[in-house]
Amino acid sequence: MTTPRYNYSATLLLDGSVLLAGGEVNLYTAELYDPETNTFGSSLNMLSGRYLHTATLLADGSVLLAGGNNNGKAELFEPDSRSFRATGSMTTGRFVHTATRLPNGSVLVTGGLRVDGVVASAELYDPATGIFTATASMSTGRLLHTATLLPDGNVLIAGGATDQEALASAELYNPQTGTFTMTGEMGTARSGHTATLLTTGQVLVAGGFGTGPLDTAELYDPASGSFRAAGTMTSARDDYTATLLSNGKVLIAGGYSVDPVTHGFVTHSSVEVYDPRTGFFTATNDMSTPRRGHTDTRLSDGNVLLAGGLDNSDTALATAEVFDQQ
To answer: Which structural domains are found in the chain, ordered by start?
Structure first.
């Protein structure tokens, strides 16, 4: 990449290129990855520096970048002009929140952290007006939680953390009523985990942080509204990535765990794959570099771009690599 980045966003655009934007500490720059030439383009400038923000592809092909580092501002990336322009600000400045594009094209923003603590509030962005408006609040404040759009149009909000502890609770947002309702609890309280919608319609929730980095996984079944155990990863992982592959398997890459001897953080180069047909996690080829706080983007050809992050010495990375699922 043109710039080392971690805790930034990566978004697959309609033309197959990838927008990589922001990152710590408060980067204003963005760049484009072209999978045809396997190159990163020259730097672009956002209107605001941001990290731990969200980036959401809209129906018209533009990208909504919202929040980050106590920033309530939002902006749009326009692929045709390769430029950023302002849009409405969020009702609440927040970071480590979630943003989910709903079937009607609007974007649901939930939870996160602001100066005075973890928030339970949620809001909706309307691309037609460029305005954020408040919607119902979640049952509890959450940061580092997940939000997964289910096949029925509802959004599963799972886990995360309050100011004091990781959460096992989960709730559903119904876009038709604009309300949250509780659903079954996870077997393990976790934050910083991943939640991947499988081709079966179930959601794989894995890893994250409870009292330490976790190696457990569970499946959410929308039909029953409950979670059940789903095996154990080959390694405990927090701050990692999980990518649904075109063959229905899930690629688990990088992250960190705690060394049992030194009790220090160890960043992983290891990679594993979850197979929903067998319910097992299996190790595959390692990345060339240990990474956490990186991004994962499934490209148009089915391969996965893994870029940036921090290595085992907490150095920000500009390197990238592609996982070939073949």
So the answer is: 193-326 (2.120.10.80)
